[in-house]
């Protein structure tokens, strides 16, 4: 499914321009929550310490830094719709051979693919259209991954008085069912890490 992502591009470009290569620059509240989200992806890799990775919505490459700091050897391909994000990624990791592409979809295969935070900001898009878009992105993650993929979403179990109309709150059980029936029998739903969101891991 193709939708106009230019307003979202402008939103995130504004964030990285204002806050630089930081958690706030990719619209997260703080460094602690940012790292906690990345931690949920680690079971995807199981015992693998050397692998190729597609990072859709890579921002300034924070996931790459997180994994390298923990001893992983990653052949990293980052994708983002914001040119400014990719510029900041190059600045943050100037001595690496990571591949960066300005794109809303993954263009090549890898062992694993991840998408962190890219489903949250939908601005004026209605739930039905955004849900269809989310599924199309999951198709792309699945088709691009040899061993598996993972993603996170804001949860529909969030407190009603704290929900924002410009954000998308997904039904974790619906997405678990989708992944279980469409992509693989090996699916994990992680919803116990004290943020208003969940992570799904799919091993193919």
Automatic annotation (TrEMBL):
Write down the superkingdom of origin. Answer: Bacteria
Gene3D superfamilies of this UniProt entry? Vaccinia Virus protein VP39 (3.40.50.150)
* Protein name, as recorded: Methyltransferase domain-containing protein
